[in-house]
Write a structure and sequence with these properties.
The protein has 2 helices and 13 strands. It has 184 residues and is an alpha+beta fold.
Length: 184
């Protein structure tokens, strides 16, 4: 039995969970989400907990068991508490600022890059520490938006300039060492 799959998902106060066959609809203070799951996985709501079961021991069904439970847990956590990802902007002259709801990035290009948030995602910028906070209730969409922002100017290995996740370690390379060697 899957260790993660057999754990019940606690439904906190203020969150409503509706299960219609294989469709799970979760509504809370931060928003609402709906997702359709595989028919091989059983989902039921009992005593304020969502239980995920499986009928078969086939490899694909076993793999889906833990995944389904994790996705439902992310939905419940997202609509109740929400998620956030921090990005750091490193480099001389590199900065980020807000323009209404849009994020303006100045990353060494000849023009600023404007990032519009999709529905359910919001940006916040701390100009003093040059940090971008991406927050929302859909963990999957949040991770994709943060990855798209990082992809605009990923950290380069020589000086470490670019956009990186908070706490990300960038492997540094040595620069050119051939300038003084070889001269006699």
């Amino acid at each position: 039995m899957s260790r993660i799959g057999r754990l019940p998902v606690e439904v906190p106060a203020g969150v409503q969970v509706q299960i219609n066959g294989q469709e799970v609809h979760v509504k809370g203070p931060k928003g609402e989400m709906k997702r359709l799951f595989e028919p091989a996985i059983g989902i039921k709501l009992e005593k304020g907990q969502v239980l995920v079961t499986r009928d078969s021991e086939a490899q694909t069904v076993r793999a889906l068991h833990g995944t389904t439970r994790a996705l439902i847990n992310n939905m419940v956590t997202g609509v109740s508490k929400g998620f956030e990802i921090l990005l750091d902007v490193e480099g001389v002259g590199y900065r980020a600022e807000m323009s209404g709801k849009n994020l303006m990035l100045y990353l060494g290009f000849s023009h600023p890059v404007e990032v519009k948030p999709p529905a359910g995602i919001s940006f916040d910028v701390d100009t003093k520490t040059r940090q971008i906070k991406v927050s929302g209730f859909d963990k999957e969409l949040l991770g994709q938006v943060a990855a798209d922002i990082r992809q605009i100017r990923p950290p380069e290995p020589y000086k470490g300039k670019g956009v990186r996740y908070h706490g990300e370690k960038v492997r540094r390379k040595a620069g050119k060492a051939g300038k003084t060697k070889g001269k006699k």
